[in-house]
């Protein structure tokens, strides 16, 4: 068999090539290097005498008419959320006594006044908030500006949703891009058309973007597990691929937009075929509910501001009106997760979990940048 020895390097290279091709098939090559070889993330530090505050925001790509569902059926889904959410979760409060919060990123392209009127009541009862979601194609800067401005004003003036910026007084909103293609980032130019999207978002009142992560979509950028500010690079798509990390006491760059990312890590606990890591991207869906094992992966992503490692930001996402997802999100698996959070907090006094909306999560981040403290976590949230 000695004559086969020269072939061993070729066999190894072939296997390595097959492995890399498998990673590329799931678009993992776009971010896996950033995970294993970070350039600007702090090494996790254990702070034995300080609590770990975990801020959890569920950002819902809330699409009642997903799949062209008829309006009466879509309204049934919305009403189900409004009826069942308070009943299921009002007693499952966090360490400050607050129930789980759900931020409904409502699509401009599915606007019907009845949906928003129903959601307003749920939000006013203290269970969440509404922000803006948008699916669009082949837009121009002018047409995109019109869509965002008009929908922003409709939500605020017609439905009493959104809020005014406490400093500028302008109507402000959080944003999630439909089909993940923020800043025209799809390699084939699909689902957007506007390279300068960050500038338009900022000028129309966007306080932060919550689109990422998008893996396994090809729109996934190389910056992962980060809170940072991005700005447009004239003429270039995917301007949000890089930016300036949020840091205690450091001001945001001029004409930049805050990017709030959710967790993105390789999941080796249940590898595919025993050798390929699965992707943990913070997506909550019918066959993948939240669990304590997933929470550990979300915390492993270590999304935090530089200089504030004991504040962990867990931005999750879902499609709450999708068949299957709604049953999980309003059912026993979700209830169990909130119960397990309480149990962990009771067993570990250092572990403090907080339910926040997208708006409140951005407010916490801006307090960090201002370098100001607060007597309690709740006081860091800007007034609505």
List the helices and strands and how they pair.
Elements: H1 8-25, H2 32-36, E1 52-61, H3 71-89, E2 102-107, H4 113-124, E3 128-134, H5 141-158, E4 163-164, E5 171-177, H6 197-203, E6 206-209, E7 227-230, E8 244-245, E9 257-260, E10 265-272, E11 276-280, E12 283-284, H7 292-300, E13 311-318, H8 325-329, H9 332-347, E14 351-355, H10 358-370
Helix pairs in contact: 3-4
Brief overview, please?
The chain is 32% helix and 19% strand. By secondary structure, the chain is an alpha/beta fold.
How would you describe the overall organization of this protein?
- The chain has 384 residues and is an alpha/beta fold.
- The chain has a single domain, classed as Alpha-Beta Barrel (TIM Barrel).
- It is built from 10 helices and 14 strands.
- The protein is globular.
- The C terminus is likely disordered.
Can you tag this structure with a few keywords?
three-stranded antiparallel β-sheet; 14 strands; nine-stranded mixed β-sheet; TIM Barrel; disordered C terminus; 384 residues
């Amino acid at each position: 068999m000695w004559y086969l020895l020269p072939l061993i390097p070729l066999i190894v290279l072939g296997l390595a090539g097959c492995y890399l091709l498998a990673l590329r098939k799931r678009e993992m090559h776009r971010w896996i290097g950033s995970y294993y070889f970070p350039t600007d993330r702090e090494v996790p530090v254990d702070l034995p005498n300080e609590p770990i505050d975990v801020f959890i925001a569920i950002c819902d790509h809330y699409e009642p008419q997903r799949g062209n569902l008829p309006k009466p059926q879509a309204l049934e889904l919305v009403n189900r959320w409004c009826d069942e959410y308070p009943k299921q979760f009002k007693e499952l409060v966090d360490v400050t006594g607050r129930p789980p919060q759900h931020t409904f990123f409502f699509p401009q392209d599915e606007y019907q006044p009845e949906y928003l009127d129903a959601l307003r009541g749920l939000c006013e009862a203290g269970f969440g908030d509404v922000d803006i979601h948008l699916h669009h194609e082949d837009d121009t800067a002018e047409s995109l500006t019109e869509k965002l401005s008009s929908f922003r004003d409709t939500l605020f003036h017609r439905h009493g949703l959104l809020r005014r910026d406490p400093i500028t007084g302008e109507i402000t909103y959080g944003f999630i891009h439909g089909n993940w293609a923020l800043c025209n980032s799809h390699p084939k130019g699909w689902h957007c058309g506007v390279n300068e999207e960050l500038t338009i978002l900022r000028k129309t009142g966007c306080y932060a973007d919550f689109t990422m992560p998008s893996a396994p979509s090809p729109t996934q950028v190389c910056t992962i597990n980060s809170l940072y500010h991005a700005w447009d690079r004239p003429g270039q798509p995917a301007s949000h691929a890089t930016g300036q990390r949020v840091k205690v006491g450091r001001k945001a760059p001029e004409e930049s937009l805050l990017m709030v990312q959710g967790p993105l890590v390789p999941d080796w606990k249940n590898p595919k075929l025993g050798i390929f890591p699965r992707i943990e991207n913070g997506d909550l869906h019918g066959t993948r509910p939240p669990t304590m094992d997933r929470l550990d992966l979300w915390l492993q992503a270590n999304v935090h501001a530089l200089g504030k490692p004991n504040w962990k930001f867990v931005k999750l996402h879902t499609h709450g009106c999708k068949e299957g997802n709604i049953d999980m999100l309003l059912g026993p698996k979700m209830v169990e997760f909130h119960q397990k959070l309480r149990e962990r907090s009771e067993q570990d006094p250092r572990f403090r979990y907080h339910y926040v909306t997208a708006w409140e999560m951005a407010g916490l981040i801006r307090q960090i940048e201002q370098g100001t403290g607060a007597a309690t976590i709740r006081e860091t949230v800007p007034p609505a």
